[in-house]
Amino acid sequence: MMLLQPNSRVLLIGDSVTDCGRKRPSGEGAFDGALGNGYASLIDAALTATYPDKAIRVINMGVSGNTVRDLKARWQTDVLDLYPDWLSILIGINDVWDQFTDPWQTGHHVSAEEFALTLEDLIRQVRPDLKGMVLMTPYFLEPDTQEPMRAMMDRYGAIVRELAVRHHALLVDSQAAFDRVLRTLHSMRLAMDRVHLNLAGHMVLTRAFLQRIGYAWEVPSVPAPDVGRDVPA
Length: 233
Known about the structure:
Helices cover 40% and strands 10% of the residues. It is an alpha/beta fold. Strands 2-1-3-4-5 form a five-stranded parallel sheet, with helices on both faces. Helix 2 crosses helix 8 (199-212), helix 3 packs parallel to helix 5 (112-126) and helix 4 packs antiparallel against helix 6 (148-166).
């Protein structure tokens, strides 16, 4: 059963993987690339096409380059003030990425401990007012789990999994979804830098998200009213 209630406001927040060129200040709407060109737009398209009667409103509040620190700085304006019914969070990629691309800029690094404490604080602020929450693990498109960046990403992903259990959120294991595809495809088929996805990569995320909310491509049809049929006297 699809878990999103009719007329739900579904807010997706995260970094560049969520952002994907969405409209400012608020990424929502049916035209002009308002939701960006990534998984947020694909989720909205799938929900609109399959469940038009539910009138679900998808809002993209991703910002490229964000870490969990950046989410904290804009949490009030970009989450709490928008009163979502459902909230999805995909964060952690830059928290790990920056430690490898800028190893000497330690002031910018977000440790696993800070990541866990900050993300949990943000969840606690909003969880009581939500009908539902989705936590998506960060990922790195590297099948070798011993590769240093993949290993660290898995540690941050484990934090997200623990928080999902603790706060009764739906978990989307993004890394597991990509690992399944990477058994057949090379990572460059989905993302040249193993992070920033092409459309196929975004479809992997979309599929994983939709599965967790109970989305079904085929929904029971409602019989059309019998317009013009003769009514027995």
